[in-house]
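Working notes for the structural subgroup meeting. M.R. asked for a predicted model of this chain before we commit to crystallization trials. I am recording the input and output together here so anyone reviewing the notebook later can reproduce the run.

Input as submitted:
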Amino acid sequence: MAKKNNSNNMNNDEPCCSFCGRPESKVEHLIAAPGDGVYICEECVEICRDQLAESDHTTPDSVALLPPEQLKAELDKYIIGQDEAKRVLSVAVYNHYKRVNYNLRNVQKDKRRDEERTIAERNTGDGVELNKSNILMFGPSGCGKTLLAQTLSKILKVPFAMVDATTLTEAGYVGEDVENILLRLIKNADYDVAAAERGIIYIDEVDKIARKSENVSITRDVSGEGVQQSLLKIIESTISSIPPNGGRKHPQQEFIHMDTTNVLFILGGAFVGLDKIVADRLGKSRIGFGGVTHSEATDPDAMLPQVQPQDLIKFGLIPELVGRVPVTVALKDLKSEDLVRVLTEPKNAIVKQYVKLLDLDGVQLEFDDSALTAIADKAIALHTGARGLRTIVENAMLDIMYKVPSDKTIKKIIVTSDTIKNAKPPKVIKDAA
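Returned structure, recorded in token form:
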């Protein structure tokens, strides 16, 4: 109890709290600081404790989250087409990180109050538990699956890791352990485990680890069904023990412990033949005028948006894995006009990059419309999608990029369809002098 002298209360000798000003008679406890005239009541102590806990530097920072409409607008700057896929992804990612931010805000508060709350008080919440919703993307090669995942991590400023599912094997077999995926994320987060725990992991070529039939195999399938089983524990919420240098585990080594509760897993793959499974299911369920037409059944873009969990299971994914990726995103094959836009519109468009590179040498570069269409048509013919555009442009520009730095008389270069189709040199305009 505080001494009743040298008070900062000007009206009488009763000491009062130096923070809220209440006298000792109005509080339960008044604590005197070393020295004279400084006091603090128990309620101000509680307030100070709450503020210190909320500013605790060990609490992970929340993710700077954008509403779905703004998130899609940011994706539009880098990715052409796939509007419906971007809408679905924007909503799914927003809901995921809204849940993450909610958990991060409350984790320290819950720890601080847990000891003070009775069992009855702990059970007086609203009873709502927010589960994680991982994402499965399927669509043809080169349609933008990987770019979507990378761009989302860039916009949200969270760590990102990508792995090819075909390199993974079940623990104990030759190949890469599934848990090494988490090590990649930790490395990309500069070994900041707290940051990695709210990052994004993209697992590509998931369709390549599908079971070869719907029947459960009686033999070991260490790179297919076995990998799917191994993925289950990290995709859900678990605390994984990861060797800091990768490789196999052994009892004597130290581990990095990482909680995957808030890690967003995005699985992707081409899933060739999935559209036929959907068409077969719809054809059996719709009879007469409501049946599937031939044009619909042969158009993957019409079938993939109607994928149901049973279709993925029939394709070869195990039911447990399908249950852990409730959000499905179907991407369409890019048409010629889409690829032309990919070449010219995004911030990092290939044409814009080459125009800038030659501008640094004082040369103006121009692609005429026929050249852009020829590039797009060639990519479609090669079945490479947007992924093959850069290679086509690189090959067309190689000779001119080789000569420009040495020839200061070149002022303008025009790339035509002949340059793309027939490997003819582009038009070169030189200084008249």
